[in-house]
Amino acid sequence: MQFRQHTVQCVSPSGLHRMAYTEWGAPDNPRVLVCVHGLTRNGRDFDALAQALAAHYRVVCPDVVGRGQSNRLRDPSAYAIPQYIADMVTLIARLNVDSVHWLGTSMGGLIGMALASQEGTPIHKLLLNDVGPVITTESLQRIATYVGTDPTWASFDAALAYVKLISAPFGKLDDDQWRHLTEHSIGQRGDGRWGFLYDPLIAAPFKAAFAGEPIDLWPIYERIACPTLVVRGAESDLLRRETWEKMGRCGPRAKLAEIPGVGHAPMFLSDDQIAVARDFLLAP
Questions:
Q1: Phi (first) and psi of residue 78, to 5 degrees
Q2: Is the dihedral of CA 115, 124, 40, 20 positive or negative?
Q3: pTM for this one?
Q4: CA 271, 282, 88: angle at the middle one, nearest 5?
Q5: Dihedral sign of CA atoms 247, 232, 136, 47 in order
């Protein structure tokens, strides 16, 4: 299925930047699904899911600023949820719709939570993929070991091996799936070496704010009122089981689903994982 690639102009305190996004399905479909990726990933993570849902939705998968094909910010201190929310509101305005369904993985889920908690939110259905209102110290420490380090490799295969290593919690993926995730997250630089397609300075606000304590966002979660599904990787170190279960009892009283054999986070590349998302999103 053919997709379309676009950009939208957004603004930060330090100036203008362009956010890239991939769009699937009929461009005039008023039913829109926005899929937002994790901290160092990009919108092409959702290709398989988007193809599966494009008959039902106009599926829009942005590269959050500083990642993928989007511009980098002049001031790295703005790499934070408020800027990401502002960019997504601009994107939704560009799409010319009043409401959207939202699927967010990790950071993309945090953006979705924050936007869904706002009065007058455009999010009418929310799928949170392996993220919730408590971000554990263990997961923050793990992320801090690699984000912002900006490694390079002499060959694509060496980059592929590294992606498999740091992304092992994604679970058992086949060779084509690993290659897809790698080829859209790295690029060849002027010296011929390969490197990640994200600004290593995205780590600056993250590391400055991390004081060794878990992050508590329960007040934000409890303001969400739309239908919500929380998908958890059964071996996740970011979304604890007790947090996940509590999410089903408070706030929007989310539906809960768990993916066996996966940590942080399910990638919706397989038919069984896609079915979990499809059944929730398309339910009346």
A1: -85, -5
A2: negative
A3: 0.96
A4: 95
A5: negative
Nearest to 170, CA basis, from 277, 261, 109, 62: 261
What is the rounded distance in angstroms from the CA atom of residue 155 to the CA atom of residue 79? 30
Q: Which two tokens stand for residue 1?
A: 């299925």
Q: Considering only CA atoms, which of 66, 74, 68 is closest in space to residue 43?
A: 68
Strand, helix or coil for residue 118: coil
Tell me the CA end-to-end span of the chain in Å, nearest whole number. Answer: 26
Q: E strands within the chain? A: 4-12, 15-24, 32-36, 58-62, 100-105, 123-129, 134-135, 152-153, 186-188, 194-196, 215-216, 228-233, 255-259
Alpha helix locations (H) across 97-155?
107-116, 137-144
Assess contact for 230 and 255: CB atoms under 8 A. Answer: yes
Among candidates 222, 252, 249, 254, which has minimal Cα distance to 129? 254
Give the span between the Cα atoms of 132 and 109, in whole angstroms.
8
- CB-based contacts of 138, cutoff 8 Å, min separation 6: 237
* Residue 201: partners with Cβ closer than 8 Å, 6 or more residues away: 66, 72, 73, 76, 79, 148
**Where does the pLDDT of residue 201 fall: very low under 50, low under 70, confident under 90, or very high at 90 and above?**
very high
Spatial strand order in the sheet of 152-153: 152-153, 194-196, 186-188
DSSP H stretches of helix in 184-264? 203-209, 218-221, 241-247
The arithmetic mean of pLDDT across residues 198-202, rounded, is 95
What is the rounded CA–CA span in Å between residue 104 and residue 235? 19
Per-residue pLDDT tens digits for 13-61: 999 999 999 999 999 999 999 999 999 999 999 999 999 999 999 999 9
Tokens 């699927």 -> residue: 103
Distances in whole angstroms, Cα of residue 228 to Cα of each of 71, 104, 132, 169, 249: 31, 11, 11, 24, 12
